[in-house]
Amino acid sequence: MKRLMTCLYLLGVRKEQRLTQLFNALKKVLNFSAERYLKTAGDLFIYQGEYESALLMVEKTLEIEPQDPRALALKGDILYCLNRDLEALDVFNSLLAIYPTSLEALASKAAVLDVLGKYREALNCCNAALANLSDKSHYLLGSLYEQKLLILIALRRYREADTLLKQALLELDKTSKEYLVANYKGTIEQNLKYRRKLREYLGKHPYLKIV
User: Fold this and answer.
1) Could you give the CA distance from residue 206 to residue 199 in angstroms, rounded to a whole number?
2) What pLDDT, in 10s, does the model give residues 146-159?
3) Does the first or last residue of the chain, that is N or C, have fewer Cβ atoms within 10 Å of its Cβ?
4) CA pair distance 109, 88, nearest whole angstrom
5) Per-residue DSSP letters for 95-146?
């Protein structure tokens, strides 16, 4: 009787082990499929510009891994490029609800909010991303500086934009510096010069005011 109970126990353990092995094997297959779909989505999005097809592939990824941060971030970026801004915003909000410090989500959300004209919210996202930047995510620094510059200019906060540009020139590589200078320095300096002249004029004509 004891031998029989032992055999039954071992059979149960082995059955459980086989089920565990089967589950792990299935999980590996699903993970492989998710990675394959995600890679295909990325290739279609980045290299071929086939946004609808990329969206289909990333949706397949999320069917397997619903909370994969890379897939969610990619889905949001694809929707943004398809001009489906509110849907993209929903995706980035969902991603940030799970991963509050996701730099990709914060940066992309800032871009969406910028397009929607919600500049102050966009600026908050940029600041949060810059505050959480690490050595591993340093590659995002240039794009974050540019995004913040665009928002500050949209808000007409040219002094802050000027300060930010000077800070960027101390931290970025040569190519990134030249890009920011070529695209934003002239606009910032022109508006600062205009503001100075306007203040001088108003100083001489105190009965006038800026509307």
Assistant:
1) 10
2) 999 999 999 999 99
3) C
4) 8
5) HHHH-TT-HHHHHHHHHHHHHTT-HHHHHHHHHHHHHT--STTGGGHHHHHH
